[in-house]
Amino acid sequence: MSVQNLNTFDPFADEGDPLGSTQDVGSQQNYIHIRIQQRNGRKTLTTLQGLPKEYDAKKLLKAFKKEFACNGTLVDDEEAGQVIQLQGDQRLKISTFLTEEGIPKNTIKIHGF
């Protein structure tokens, strides 16, 4: 009967990067996030964040308000940067609008119920 020696192999030793060359695992930097927030009663608020810098948020907000017939505002957040807030559930409308403007669909994440 032999006793196995566990000192020859350390399963918890650092073997470098186990995920390969993926540096931004779990980061939310290069995605556009469209979220919905519940206000009071049936009222909802749609937020858009993570917009690339080459797009002007004020002009985009003006186009959203005119296209979707809703009110909206531009909020400066210290963590998320500039956030566009629109009244109502505008998630699918924002997504189709952005894809028509040339933003790839795989960079847009839609969150919410």
TrEMBL record:
GO terms for molecular function: mRNA binding; translation initiation factor activity. It holds the Pfam family SUI1. The keyword Protein biosynthesis applies. Residues 32-102 form the SUI1 domain. Residues 1-26 are annotated as: Disordered. Keywords: Initiation factor, Protein biosynthesis. It comes from the Eukaryota. Probably involved in translation. Belongs to the SUI1 family. This is Translation initiation factor SUI1. The lineage of its organism: Eukaryota, Fungi, Dikarya, Basidiomycota, Agaricomycotina.
